[in-house]
Amino acid sequence: MAVFWWVVGPVVAAVGCWALLRACRFPGGWGYAFGPARRAVRQPLRDARGEVRTLLRAARRERWRARAGVLRAEWSYRRRIRRTEARLRRLAVPQRGSKIAQLGGVVLHRGSVLMSGDELPLAGAEVRFVRGGAKNMSYVYVTHPDGRERVQPYEGEEFPEDAVRGFSVRIRKAAAAAERRQKRRAGGIRALEAQVREARGATGPVVSARQRLKRITADHGEDPRVPRARTALDEARDDWRKLTGRRPLR
């Protein structure tokens, strides 16, 4: 029995709610709300309600589409700016790049050199090889344009002078290549900065979408069809009250 009511109960409740709603929409008794003989009496009220509902649904649908158009335009506008700014940030920050070579404590990368616990960008750096001192020592100096200078000593027994000199030449060549890339990158940065300004100023689609939404909202507020349909519905409700003594809900 419990299973029976578990299955049938929701159906009974739904039917009861439907019957109660119909009785409120067509008050005056069972015959007026449900009777087949009163179908023609109910039709004018049903038609008047349907006209109001159709007009309001059409207006809501049009406003929703206009709002969706605004959201799409704003999203596209912001996305274009974000993507361009992200490209600019990636290009503006010098990258270490892949490893080229290493000698002792100095690690040479495509865009920087690691030495003395510090990382120096190669673009604009000056590289010097110095021979001298005890134990056949040789030195590699790297000076950055901001004034930072690092030096790496090499003992001749472990690192022959020719190897250190050749390594300093590789660093110098890598620095020259990094300088050329930086100049090209500077041109790319200027181009991307212009693209960012252009993206930020490209508000035309957003403005047009907002103006369309504003115009549609204003048109709906001035549309005479909805007030006429509501007046016709009120007249149909008045007619129903004259007939049954009960004024139905809208």
The secondary structure category is alpha+beta
Order of helices and strands: HHHEEEEEEEHHH
Strand portion, in percent?
A: 5-15%
Number of helices: 6
Low-pLDDT residue spans: none
Helicity, as a percent range: 55-70%
The biggest beta sheet reads: 4 strands, antiparallel
Distance between the termini: 41 Å
Mean pLDDT across residues: 86
Computed Rg: 41 Å
| Order of adjacent strands in the largest pleated sheet | 1-2-3-4
Principal-axes shape call? rod-shaped
**Got a strand count?**
7
What does this structure look like?
- With 250 residues, the protein is an alpha+beta fold.
- It has six helices and seven strands; from the N terminus they run H-H-H-E-E-E-E-E-E-E-H-H-H.
- The chain has helices at 2-25, 30-34, 39-92, 161-201, 204-222, 225-244; strands spanning 99-103, 106-109, 112-115, 118-121, 126-131, 138-143, 149-154.
- Strands 1-2-3-4 form a four-stranded antiparallel beta sheet, covered by helices on one side. Strands 5-6-7 form a three-stranded antiparallel beta sheet, covered by helices on one side.
- Helix 3 (39-92) runs antiparallel to helix 6.
- It is rod-shaped and about 120 Å long.
- The two termini are 41 Å apart.
- The mean pLDDT is 86.
Which helices and strands, and how do they pair?
Layout lengths: L1 H24 L4 H5 L4 H54 L6 E5 L2 E4 L2 E4 L2 E4 L4 E6 L6 E6 L5 E6 L6 H41 L2 H19 L2 H20 L6
Antiparallel strand pairs: 1-2, 2-3, 3-4, 5-6, 6-7
